[in-house]
Amino acid sequence: MPKFKFLPILIILMITLSLVAPSLGVSARRLAATTPVSLGTTSNFAILAGSAVNDNNLSQINGDVGLSPAG
């Protein structure tokens, strides 16, 4: 009997997974089907910051940098 010691736990786990897995697939499809958010005039910005932007000499920024309040 020690051979089947974990069998009830395995069965419960499999039943739980079979009930939960389909709902995960539905929510993933809903997320994939959402409409993209329009960024309006911010679409040209590569970086938008609320206080500061730090840079090192190896950075390459392709786009505008926005900082509010301007500094």
List the helices and strands and how they pair.
Layout: H1 7-32, E1 45-49, E2 64-67
Parallel strand pairs: 1-2
Structure, described:
The protein is of the alpha+beta class and 71 residues long. 37% of the residues lie in helices and 13% in strands. The protein contains 1 helix and 2 strands.
Spatially, the strands of the biggest sheet line up as: 1-2
The rounded distance between the terminal residues' Cα atoms is 73 Å
The value of Rg in angstroms is 25 Å
Molecular shape? elongated
Residue share in β-strands: 5-15%
Average of pLDDT: 74
Low-confidence stretches: none
* Helix percentage: 25-40%
How does the helix and strand content classify structurally? Answer: alpha+beta
Strand count: 2
SSE pattern: HEE
Count of DSSP H/I helices: 1
Largest sheet: 2 strands, parallel
Condensed summary:
The protein is an alpha+beta fold. It contains one helix and two strands; from the N terminus they run H-E-E. The protein has one helix spanning 7-32, and strands at 45-49, 64-67.
